[in-house]
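User: I'm curious what two different proteins look like when written out as structure tokens. Can you demonstrate?

Assistant: Sure. I'll show them one after the other, since each token string lines up with its own sequence. Here's the first protein:
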Amino acid sequence: MSGYENILFDLDGTVTESAPGIFHSIRYAMDRMGCRLPDDLDLNVFIGPPLTVSFRNVLGFSETDADRALSLYREYYNDRGLFECRIYPGIPELLARLGGEGRTVALATAKPEVFSRRILDHFGLTGRFSFIGGASLDASRRHKDAVISYTLSNLPGASAANTVMIGDRDQDVIGARQNGIGCIGVLYGYGTAEELTRAGAIALAEDCEGLYDLLSE
């Protein structure tokens, strides 16, 4: 796999352990809407897919209510939830090693780009990425396949043969496949080996060291 010159990273569950801020923001939005979350609901289902999609599919919201929930979510997330996360161990070193080898490292996340930049700035990682590709705040670029396409279009010379996606959920794998590139799944995030394998991940990594080994084979 050492032929990959362009490496795209997901953010939530791949670069950052972001669950606390996301969960707090969801609970805030539900409280403001007067909605009670099911006691047996695993909030991890909200990490990865666009939130409006999850509000509709998981909670049965109408499109109007899903948009309102997203707006309320962002009230909390923009001020507090954004930074209620941490960088996974080994990520800064991994990004530095890949960049030092002359590889192009980019971000491709379904999180809004404006939030993604603020998070990377906060942790001093912005400079490790040649390009930061994220979702738009409106509906024009929301799903993972669109974000990956957008990111690829901003990487001169990127092709299916020399580019790979790194992510922790099936959305990462599916979005990569829709753009003709492979995806390596990481098992330290919020997805499972079964989920990633079923979606078509080309390999799985237990941790950052294992991921680097795969990229160096």
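Here's a second, unrelated protein for contrast:
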Amino acid sequence: MTLDLNFVRSQFPALDSEWAFMDNAGGTQILKGCVDNINEYYYKNNVQLGGSYEPSQIAAKAFNEGRRKISTLFNAKSADEIVFGPSTTVLLQFLSKSLVGQFNKGDEVIVTTMDHETNIGPWLELEKWGVIVKFWDINLDTHTLHLSDLKKLLSDKTKLVAFTHVSNIVGTINPVKEFTRFIHDHGAMVCVDAVAYAPHRAVDVSEWGVDFYAFSLYKTFGPHHAALYCRMDRMLELDNLYHYFYGKDKIPAKMEPGNANYELSYGSGAIVDYLVELGSRANENGTDRENIEAAFDLITDHETRLGSMLLSYLGNRNDCNIIGIDDGNNTSRVPTISFTIKGKLSDQICLAMDKHKIGIRFGDFHARRLSDLLLLNQFNGAVRISLTHYNTMDEVERLISSLDQVLN
């Protein structure tokens, strides 16, 4: 089966616009179901949780339903392994604070030069407590991370390795399961930033064995909200970030100081409803989880064709430097495609594209260390076109036609 784009686009009212949205790695359009859920929560369940009265009990049930559904999106074993927060940046800051008690002076953390600053900055904060932070450098020839380089950094003092599932500049999928097994074999924990991965492929934290895994729901078709998976044994060990009388076993509330946003947590459950419905069209009798996986199979196929079309155009230009894999048929990349054009500044390209009502972006995308390594400053950053499954072939044709006018 192929993706039913009529159904897909009908679920995103904002797509009824003269603009083509191709800055999806910065934030996707929101599902109608999420907005409906948020409205429902405000109009029917807008009371504080924890009360004995019936509306409070109903509100708690709705909030818990949102957490349960998002746990299915992660394929977590328990809904209590899911922590909600306003963004991945905030959640990883919370995580680093909650891990402080497990580190001693001289312990080591490894971060990468491929990551968004979200998965670097919070770990550098641990240097205040005497933790040593090392950098796992990206290979500048392949634009990938190599385990051989990581091996040189690991020691018996290594407590955690933080890396990205997909770079929001490079677009290549890192082999999380392989990396995790290697790191665990050396006695360290794993923290993965999946913001640029989760909109494009099925997440499976149980299969991969990761300790911590986070992504932003507003970049995965939902509201401005985010979720962090903490494997249960790790969750129980984390320090409490909430009131002093919350013990380590009060999960996941101890990781949600001030409480998670109730309406956005409930609203986010519609992401799962949508994916289940999408997958059921190819897998009628599947479980919710099986239908999510079937949905992402359809999404991957469609996005690969979108990406292939754009990469073919860019690859045929003799003035274009594509960052990452340039083979559009290679499913080891997502359609987050960054490039520079010889003799042109990226900001000027994007400003010119604005006139064609096509939304793309330029810059370092908060992956400043990677941008500096790739020498993107000379172009005022890279141009990034980030497609997702609700984009169409017609939109990509329009994009290419507009790029032709702007670049030539």
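A detail about the second structure: The chain has a mean pLDDT of 97.
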